[in-house]
Amino acid sequence: MENWITEAHSDAVHFNVKVKEQLYHGQSKYQMIDIYDTYAFGRLLALDGDIMITEKDEFIYHDMIVHVPMATNPDIKKVLVIGGGDGGTVRELTRYKTIEQIDMVELDEQVVNVCRDYFKDVASGFDDPRVHLYFEDGVSFVSGLKEVYDLIIVDSTDPFGPGEGLFSKGFYENCFYALKEDGILINQHESPYYENDAYEMKRSHANIKRTFDIAKVYQFHMPTYPSGHWLFGFASKTMDPETVDLSTWEALDIKTKYYNTKIHKGAFALPTYVVNMLEEV
Amino acid sequence: MNNYMPTGGIEWSQDWDPTTKLAIKVTRHLHAEKSPYQQIDFFESETYGTFFTLDGLMMVNEKDEFVYHEMITHVAMATNPNIKKVLIIGGGDGGTAREIGRYKTIEHIDMVEIDERVVRLCQQYLPVTAGHLDKDERIQLLFTDGLEFIKNTPDNTYDLILVDSTDPIGPGEGLFSREFYNNCYRALAEDGILINQHESPYYDFHVHGMKRAHLRLNELFPVVKVYQYHMPTYPSGHWLFGFASKKYDPLKDQNREWWESLNMTTRYYNSDIHRGAFMLPNFVMEKMK
Amino acid sequence: MLDHNKTPLYDALRKHIESRVIPFDVPGHKQGHGNEELQKLFPKSVLEADVNSMKSLDFLGNPISVIKEAEDLLADAYLSDESFFIVNGTTQAVQAMLMSAVNEGDTVILPRNVHKSAINAMILCGAKPHYMYPHFEAKFGMTIGVSLEEVKKAIEEAPEAKAIFLINPTYYGVISELKAIIEYAQCQGLLVIVDEAHGAHFPFHKELPKTAMAYGADMAAVSLHKTGGSLTQSSALLLNTRKIERDHVKTIVNLTQSTSASYLLMTSLDLTRKFLMTQGEKNLEMVLELARNARDKINAIDGLIAFSAKDFNPEGCYGFDETKLGVCVTGIGLTGIHVYDLLRDEYNIQVEMGDSHNILAIFSVGDTEKRVNQLVSALSAIAQKYKREPLDLKFNSFNATAVAYSPREAFYKEKERILITESAGRVSGEFVMIYPPGIPILAPGELITEEICAYIELLKREKGSISGLKDNNVEYLYCIKE
């Protein structure tokens, strides 16, 4: 018998992936967690049926969420990751010797435990002594903090279910207060293509733009996400990712499979229809 | 996600790779026909509007055709404003000719499409791309094999050749051959530019096509660059064009002022993305080495 | 106790839908056929359930079968002898209670912070109000409960009174010394009728306050749709038949109840009662925990007070409903109305109300931790972003009123239009209130004071939604012609 998993990219568009075998199925307090071994993508993690990471292309997402802010400000010492239960973001961060502390706040402990078992490489950063794990809602964790972090990365699911709240204005404002003077906020910014994703993209951008002086959006190619056209938000109080000198990062000689300093600049060049959508909010 | 295809429709799907596919609920199968060259189908869907497929592969749909057609044309045009004579090989849907036709400076467009039925059906079902083909007098439609046509083209004929081909199987096969590219090079003017459909870096089948397309350009042209764009209905959504020229560099010679002075309304292309598109991920550059 | 897994009305309705009877009666939408937009908004199941009374589904005006059974179950759940399903909102229940208890010319003792529906009921039945003045908590700019002393005083002042009207709890969740007050008033020969609009969840968790019915009150109106979880406008009137006959109340209820009572509303009452009786304890446990956590987190934010029993003068506060999360925001320099608007317009959060000092968030069985966290997060952000010098608002509006005419007299007297700023010293001919909650700042027949004028001006400045007046711009007030 052939097994296929299906993710709905819109009501009438489905993405289907043939599965070798299901390695894990569980229902946590917050969501359904599934891990499959697939032919095309190696191991694949799905939360509530939506593809989160695959072994084949997780590097794209994690390269772009971490190296863009780190190359913009190589002096980053204290980082807060909200979400990111698979560990990929933390793994990329631990490659920087200059980082002193990484706090990761993930709502669902079960995701972390399962990824430690099934995605050994992705989750490899969890054992770094600089990493501190907190299992709670990031919305609450960040409330009331004052100038604690140099970088906050919101590595969240879609704004439904567990990711709800990580797209709200109150949350972004509290991130603003939790960041130091030259702090940077990176957030999972959805996609411009399918209607539902585009709606959330606009809402998220509207909320960030009204909070941070610098609020930009950059894109990357993520083949296993709906439309493959995905975005991150870059917000900061002072730093402009497009004009900073990136040579310090180049000197670090970090090997990456997607990110490079050229794509750093290129990723901020957006299609006209995306620019228009972001401007109209 | 637990929502299944709404009832009352037909499911159309395309394999993106042997174990990955995109399925689209179609509301109507508008047309099916087997031409001498290929199977042609037109569908209507909620998400993408009208779309058509050749031998079961998504070609053009109303939702995102603009991405492809803007990116295949405006990068070259914004690099050399003096382009006057253009050859389009393939592109039976008419979208590429439509975009090129927007430049008043263009004097002549030859569109060479092997399968006349594709053009005629697109004129009927997809006026958004093919509607102007019989309205623009600069466009000459030639229903013949691109490979043969270019063989018989005199030297120094075109300022720009756009290879708007299908994948390197079926009718598109010859358009990835060395002979074809040799003739294109010959048919191009001294400052000529060639843009080719350059496949995708993600799934194995397309990586193979990408390498092949790239090799052909590298063998011949002094300037060869590859640029990327987001094409959600093509496998992986990560898709490429090749830019090859005898003289112009798309980044150094980008004529931003001239292009912006045209005040052309575009939905994907702009002067920033012109540059940004050439910034490729490391894994893509490595695969093309 | 009856078997609360039963849902007689729901079962009958389901059976009716399954039988696919051909409808040649009203409602005319005939399950939505023909109106596509209606079908799109309301699922088929909703339109099919929107039916009219018929033999198999009983009749609310004179229930004898499935509605009566459902009402008996509801009465049992709320520890009363009888219950009446109400489909025109708790306003209708309050009016029916007062009209059942008193006649034209009778006096009713009631706290000044009643909902307008109680005063409207007096316009309808011609009763005269004798007000008790609940304790005013100046720090939060709100009236809270009435003390037993205040009740005794009122009864002494108005020995002719037939009934006493109580509120349990107040909008903000404050409970008066209910048991002692009910016992005392009944000893004095008064009927005790209670507005429990905001206490529909009380009987279903041991740590929530007791209901008036549990203390033997004669009648109570409970808004099941507010905190119980039934559909908006569905409500109930509860009755202990020791002193008032069921048939008398039924006649009064039918004066104002729709003869085309909605089966959506009634069935939601049936299902809600079952839910509360079978799963209420567990769910309310979670609601209480959410509310307690939220209170603690908000109290840790500089400038905000999420008040509870300990913050009130014990004279006016004998107990507290913790599921009502009132937050005093004057400490960050903003009015409650301002924060209410900020939450709505900037943070996409709708709270129940905002007044001069406070906002009120209602917690109920539908809430989740994630959403509560967002509320707290938004308040934390507001407290940092907008913080300025604390506001010092001095008001004592409700305790300064004096009644010149009964509501009914004032309602029918000749009136003239007066600028609000020049109205001090006159007698109001209409209501002035901020909605929600709909507690009158001025009721018809009351003397207008400088303080009240100032309070109305503040509400206007803060863009509070003032209602009750004929003049939508809130510049003129109709006063009794002198």
What's the arrangement of secondary structure elements?
The complex is a heterotrimer of chains A (281), B (289) and C (482).
Chain A: E1 3-10, E2 13-27, E3 32-38, E4 42-47, E5 50-54, H1 58-72, E6 78-83, H2 88-93, E7 101-105, H3 109-118, E8 131-134, H4 138-142, E9 149-155, H5 169-178, E10 179-188, H6 195-209, E11 214-221, E12 229-236, H7 247-252, H8 261-266, H9 272-279
Parallel strand pairs in A: 6-7, 6-9, 7-8, 9-10
Antiparallel strand pairs in A: 1-2, 2-3, 3-4, 4-5, 10-12, 11-12
Chain B: E1 10-17, E2 20-34, E3 39-45, E4 49-54, E5 57-61, H1 65-79, E6 85-90, H2 95-101, E7 108-112, H3 116-125, H4 127-130, E8 139-142, H5 146-151, E9 158-164, H6 178-187, E10 188-197, H7 204-220, E11 223-230, E12 238-245, H8 256-261, H9 271-276, H10 282-288
Chain C: H1 8-19, H2 36-41, H3 44-49, H4 66-77, E1 82-86, H5 89-101, E2 107-111, H6 116-125, E3 128-132, E4 136-137, E5 142-143, H7 148-157, E6 163-167, E7 174-175, H8 178-187, E8 191-196, E9 219-222, H9 224-228, E10 235-239, H10 246-256, H11 263-299, E11 305-306, E12 319-320, E13 324-328, H12 336-347, E14 353-354, E15 358-362, H13 369-385, H14 407-412, E16 415-419, E17 432-434, E18 439-442, H15 450-461, E19 466-467, E20 476-480
Parallel strand pairs in C: 2-3, 2-6, 6-8, 8-9
Antiparallel strand pairs in C: 1-10, 4-5, 7-12, 9-10, 11-13, 13-15, 14-15, 16-20, 17-18, 17-19
